[in-house]
Amino acid sequence: MSKSKWGWDKKPLEELLFQNNAFIDALFEPMHSPEGNLYSEVRESLWPLLQTLQVDAKQRKLIWPDGKPLDLDESVHNIHTHYPEFPRALIESRLISWLEMEYAPESYSPEQLDELDRLTERWINDHSRRSGAR
After folding, report:
1. What order do you get walking across the sheet with 69-70 strand by strand?
2. Which of 7, 11, 64, 108 shows its CA 20 to 30 Å from the CA of 19?
3. Is the full-model pTM beyond 0.85?
């Protein structure tokens, strides 16, 4: 191993960052738990379905492949009907995550994407407030 100009051993940066790092270990631990495995299963199972949905953020509706517009609660119910083994809360979390971070039509201009982000953020915030009030 080579020495730095200050006299200590140089190690690859990855080795220094990830070796015996309790923070990194704790960060990835949930991924290997039963809950983490279930979340991964939900994410992977729902991905093909989510790819078929369109979003009308102004009307706060998800447009399903059959053309039916459903709100978030109706969409969670619809998905749960097809995946009863998945907890509703996890389905809702995955759907919201997809809306917030993954849905971005390629045909949208940067301005349209900005508007989509603003509308989606308000939609999800209002949904969260209503859900928390129940």
Report:
1. 54-56, 61-63, 69-70
2. 7
3. no
